[in-house]
Amino acid sequence: NRAVNTNNSQELEYLYSRGYTYQDLEFLKNYLGLDEHNNIVFACTKESFILRLLKPWHDKNGKELRYKSSPRLEKTRHYCYLLDTVNQENVIKNNYNIFIFEGVFDTITFRILCKNNCLAFASGGADSNHDLIANKINDITSTLNHKVNVFILFDNDKTGEYNATLLAELFNKNYINVYKDMSKFLFKNSKDISDEFKINREELQERINCLINKIS
């Protein structure tokens, strides 16, 4: 929890530059950790294909790095960020609603806006994760007696729309209602929820509240 309870002004300054307040950081506590080089990372990405650094660092050539390849893990599989939070109990607890983002920062931003009262995770931006995501959610929803709403809130650009369409096609529509075009409403003219959060938090909060109220 160093990035929350920290005396390092540079670490806090980076988080503040993304639009977070000190109070927001309380929602990050369970998701942050340190790598072997003492860089702050999202702990929930430890077993992902890509390890997400909290604050960018630079290599010996001065290139900014925000991601690192995860170490090869024996006898484990690589997970999507926070995908393990998707289980039958949590689906029911969260009113049969699941939110999927591309990036872990986007997921955390949404969780902050929902005060962590939501079931959200990130694909990591890799279409190779799509089968893993769809298979798990299809398996869970097939055991429920209520249809599940899946909101694919990928980036508001052509690549995001394309990948959202690819993922949407993998869900079993007998058990799942899929919404893949909500990004245009929620993020308006921004690329993703993190950008919208930074420049227009108040209105974004209202849109998120409106969505949550409608589906609760």
Record keyword descriptors for this entry.
alpha/beta; four-stranded parallel sheet; 216 residues; single chain; 7 helices
Explain briefly what this protein structure is.
The chain is of the alpha/beta class. It has helices at 9-17, 88-93, 104-113, 130-141, 158-168, 183-186, 193-215; strands at 32-34, 40-42, 50-58, 64-69, 97-101, 120-122, 148-152, 176-179. A hairpin with a 5-residue loop joins strand 1 and strand 2.
Task: Explain the layout of strands and helices.
Layout: H1 9-17, E1 32-34, E2 40-42, E3 50-58, E4 64-69, H2 88-93, E5 97-101, H3 104-113, E6 120-122, H4 130-141, E7 148-152, H5 158-168, E8 176-179, H6 183-186, H7 193-215
Parallel strand pairs: 5-6, 5-7, 7-8
Antiparallel strand pairs: 1-2, 3-4
Describe this structure in words.
This protein is α/β, with parallel strands linked by helices and 216 residues long. 35% of the residues lie in helices and 18% in strands. The protein is built from seven helices and eight strands, in the order H-E-E-E-E-H-E-H-E-H-E-H-E-H-H. It has helices at residues 9-17, 88-93, 104-113, 130-141, 158-168, 183-186, 193-215; strands spanning 32-34, 40-42, 50-58, 64-69, 97-101, 120-122, 148-152, 176-179. It has a four-stranded parallel beta sheet, sandwiched between helices. Helix 3 (104-113) links the parallel strand 5 and strand 6 (120-122). Helix 3 (104-113) crosses helix 7. The longest helix has 23 residues, at 193-215. The radius of gyration is 17 Å and the shape is globular. The two termini are 32 Å apart. The mean pLDDT is 87.
